[in-house]
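Let us work through a complete example step by step.
Step 1: write down the sequence.
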Amino acid sequence: MTAIQSQTIGFIGLGAMGFPMAQNIAKKLSLKELIVFDVNTHAMEQLATEFPKDVKKGSSAREVMDRSVSFQIKHDVSKI
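Step 2: predict the structure and record it as tokens.
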């Protein structure tokens, strides 16, 4: 088992970019758990239905942060 397989990964934001990114994480990585949160509960439900063994719905962004490995993707907003 790799280090990432033994960890819970958190993903916040399941919009136009985030949803397919979370799908790829669920498909391609063997995780202990992928916990997700979005204000759009339908998006969370859709992902959890597609990957019932891997994806858990968080009740808040705080819960996702508390239960998962922490890493960030930062954007240089001046270039957007």
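Step 3: interpret the result. The chain has a mean pLDDT of 83.
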